[in-house]
Amino acid sequence: MIDRSTSARVRLMTGAGVLALTLSLGGIVHAQAAAQPPVGEDEDAQATELEEIVVTGIRASIANAVNQKRNETSIVEVITAEDIGKLPDQSITESIARLPGITAQRLDGRAQVISIRGLGPDFTTALLNGREQVTTGDNRGVEFDQFPSELLGSVVVYKTPDAMLVGQGLAGTVDLRTIRPLEYGRQALAVNYRYEFNDLESLNSGAEDTGQRYSVSYVDQFFDNTLGVVLGYAHMESPYQNERYNSWGYPAADCRTLNFDGSTPFTCDGAGNPQPGYEDVIGVPILGGAKPYAQSGLVDRDGYVGVVQWDPNERFSATFDAFYSQFENTQILRGIEIPLWWGAGNGVNERLEPGAVVEDGLVTQATFTNVDPVVRNDLNTRDADTLALGANLRFQLTDNWALIADFSHSSVDRTDQVVESYSGTGRGAAGGNTDVTYTIDDNGVATFDLSRDYTDPTTMRLTDPKGWGGTRNQAGYLNSPTTEDDLNAVRLTLEGYIDAGPISSVEFGANLSSREKSYVADEFFLQVAGGLDDVAIPAACLLDPTNIEFLNIQMISYDTACVLDSGVLEAQRNPAFDVLSKNWVVTEDINSLYWQANLEQELGWARLLGNVGFQINSVEQRGSGFATSAATPELVAIEDGADYIDFLPSANLIFQFGDNDILRFAAARVQARPRMDQLRGSQNFFYNETNRNSTDINAAYFGGNGGNPSLRPWEADVFDISYEHYFGPGAYVSVAAFYKDLRTYIFNQNVTFDFTGFPYPDPLPPEPGQPAPPEVPASFLGLYSSPQNGEGGTIQGIEVAASIPFGQFFSPLEGFGLVASYSDTSSDIQPEPGNPSRPIEGLSEKVSNVTLYYERYGFQARVSNRYRSEFLGEVAGFANGRAFRNVGEESLIDAQLGYEFQSGPLEGLSFLVQGNNLTDEPFTTLEATDPRRAIDYQRYGRTFLFGVNYRF
C-alpha cells in the first residue's frame, strides 16, 4: 500500500521523500520501507519501525528501491546505495544510466553526464539532500563524477515534479542523498579497497596504468539516540587509456592546381577536366587531415562527507551536512597531426598522387607527398574543488503544524590547463617532408604509412612546423580558463495537517536563491625563446618513443611539463580581441513562492493520493562581459538582463486499486534555464567597409555575435501516465508514456541589433575618381547572431520496466532475477526557421538496460547491458570549444562476481571482482550517416577491479 505519510518536510530534512539507507561499503541495507511518520507521531514508534526493517543483500536493496518507487507521489526512479556499491560501475553516473529512460554520455571512457527522456545534460538539475548544486562544467550540466558513490545513501530521479521540488529541471531532477545517522539507527564502521587496471595498459611513457580506490565510513548515535554522526572519506586514483582517432573531416576532392598562383595543373587541367589517375576522385569525399592521439589519463579525487543530526526533543530537530571534493584530472596526449587534402599552405603543398582507391563513394586509400606533419605532445589538466554545506532546522509549532528553515551553500572553483606542444623537422617549409599513405577501415579509422622517422631526437625540433603562427614562431599554445560558481539559498516552509475533504495536508513557503558564475579565459602563445626558428628538445625531458600501434605511427615523446619548466619556450599572452570576449559573468536571483495540497481520499473503487500545487518564480538575471572587434582596440562594456515572473502549476494524481496496482497521472509546467554561456554579455562585433553607406539591414555595415542576457528559459507543458503492477518484494512491471509540449525553446538566430555607441574605424581612402565615404556610417543597425527564444516542438515516448525475482515463479531459481527496461523516444523541433527539424541534443530514440543477477548463500553475480541508439552529442571541438556531433550507438556490457561471509569470525568481510566495458565498445562520432566517415573513434579498453570490503 502507499503510505501517505510521505511529505515534503521529509524531503527537506533527509533529502526528499523516503530513503533506503545503507553503507555502500558494508553490504547491508538498513532501509525505511515507506516514509517518515506523520507530524507529531511518537518517535519511539518510528525507531521501532526502523528496527523491524533490516534487510541484507543485493536482492533486498532492489526490493527497497522498488518499494520506494511504489510509495512516491511523483513518477520517480530509485537507486539505493547497495545498488551503487555492488553494481559493476566506475561511477554513480553509470548506475543512474541503468534506470528506465535515462542514458549517459561517456567522456574518456567514463560516464560523466546524463540525459533523461531524450533531453541533454543542461535540461537536468542536480540536488544534494534536496538542495540545488552548482556545476564544475562551463554551464548547467552536472558532471556526476565529482560525487563519490561510496559516500551516498541513495539517488532519486524525479521524472515528474511537484510544487515542493525547488530547482526542478525540464527533463528531470536528480537528488543525491547522504545517510541520516538517526534513521540509520546503529553504529557501523566500514572500509573498502579496490585495485584497478585497464587491459590497454599504458599507451604513453610516464603514464600510470594501475589505480586504487579506498574509503571509510563511520555512523554512530549518542545521548540516547538524540545525536547522530556520519563521517566519510573516499579516495580514487583511476587511470584511463584512449586510442583516440580524430579526423579533420571529409571534403569533396575538387579541381586544383598545384600552386596558389594557378600554375601547374594538379587534379584537373586548365579547362577543368580531370588529369589521368584522378578521374574517379573528383567530387568524392576524401580525408582532409587527421589528428590521432594515444591518450593516457589519471583521475585523482578525494571526497569528504560529514553529517550531524540532533533531535533533542519532540519540538525541535536539526541536521547539518557538508560535502567536499578535490578533483584532479591529468591527460597526456601524444600523436601526429597529419594535413592532407586540407593541408596545403605556407609554401608547403600536400600533393595527392594519382591512383587513389574509391569505394562506395569514399576515397578509402590514397597517397600524399610533400606532407609536413605536426608532432604533438599535449598535456591537459583540470583542478576542481566542490563544496556543499547545508543546515536544516525543524520547529514543531503545534501537534499539526511545523516550520522548517533550510540554509545551503554550494560552490565550485575550477582551473584548466590545455597545453599544446609542437615539434617537427623545421619551421614552416624549412623542414623535410614525408610521404603518407592512408587506408580507412570499416570503422572509419585510418592507418598511416609515413616514409620519414619522427622518433629521432637529433632531427626533431621544438618549432612551428606548419607556420600556424605566421610571423610568430608558434611552437605551442596554452589555454588556462578558470571558472567560479557560487549558489546560496534560504528556504522557509510551513506545513500542517488539516481535514478538508480530499486534502490531508498543505505545505507552503518561499525559497530565495542567488547564483553567480564566471568564466575567465587566459590564453598564451608558446614561442621558442630568443626568437629562434627552432630549438632542440631538452635531453632531460625526453622519454621513450610512443608507438601508436592502432594507427601504425611511431613518434618522439617528451615530458611537456618538463619542457615548459626548462625555459626553452616562452609564453606570450594572446592579444586577439576574441580572447577577452570569451570572459563573462552571469548572476541569477530567483525568489520562489510555493504552495501544495496533499491528497488522500477513498473513492470506493480506488484510493486517491497525490498532490496539486504551484510555484511562482520571480527571476532577476544579469549577464556581463565585453564587446570586442579585430578592427579597433576599444572595448565596450556590456551588462544586460531581464526580470520576469513565471507561474508553474503541477499535479500528481495516484489511483490505487487494491494492494498491487497503481495508475498515475501527472501534469506540470516545467522549465530549463538557459545555458550560462548563452546568458553572457560578451560579444564580438565587426564591420563591412563596403556597406558603410548602406541602410539595408541585409547589407549592413555593423554585424556581430555573442550572448543574450535577456534570454528566457526553455518551457514545456508535460503530461505523464504510468501503470504499475506489484507482485512481491522487489517484483513489478510498469508501462509509462509521456508527452512534452515545448512552449519555448532556444536556438541561434540573426536579429536586428542597434550598435549605437560601438566604436568604428575611420573610412578607407576612396578609389580614384570615387567620392569619399561618409565619416559616420549611414546606419548603426546590423544583424547580430545570438541565442533567441523560439516556439513549438514536442517530445514524446514510452517506457517499459520490470523487476522479476525468478524464485517467485519457480523455487529452484531462488536467488536469480532480472531487472530490465526499454524506452522509445522521439522529438519534433525546428530550432532554425526555414531549416528542417532535427533531434534535440542528447536524444537517443531507443534505450534499454538489462541486468541478470544471482545472489544466495553469500555468492553474488551480475551481468548487465546498457544500450543507447545514436544521438546528437556535445563534444570538445576546435580550441576546446563546444561542438555537436552525431554520436554512434553504444552497447556496454559489465559484470561482477563476489562473495560475502555471512557468519563466523569473518562475518562482514566480502570480496568482489568487476569488469567494465567487457566488449571494448568504442565511442564514435560521424560526419554523416556513413560509418566510414568517422570524426572521432575512441577505444577505451576493458577495466577490471578487484575489491575487498569489511564492515565492523
- Number of DSSP strand runs: 52
From the alpha-carbon coordinates, what is the Rg to the nearest angstrom?
Answer: 30 Å
Largest sheet: 35 strands, mixed
Low-confidence stretches: 1-55, 83-88
The count of helical stretches stands at 8
Mean pLDDT: 87
Kindly estimate the percentage of residues that lie in beta strands according to DSSP. Answer: over 45%
Report the span from N to C terminus: 35 Å
Structural class designation: mainly beta
**Overall spatial form:** globular
Helical content (DSSP H or I, runs of 4+): under 10%
Describe this structure in words.
A hairpin with a 4-residue loop joins strand 1 (20-23) and strand 2. It contains 8 helices and 52 strands. Residues 1-55 and 83-88 have low confidence and may be disordered. The two termini are 35 Å apart. The protein has a 35-stranded mixed β-sheet that branches. A 5-stranded mixed β-sheet has the order 4-9-10-7-8. Strands 17, 18, 19, 22 and 23 form a 5-stranded antiparallel β-sheet that branches. It is mainly beta. Helices cover 6% and strands 55% of the residues. It is globular.
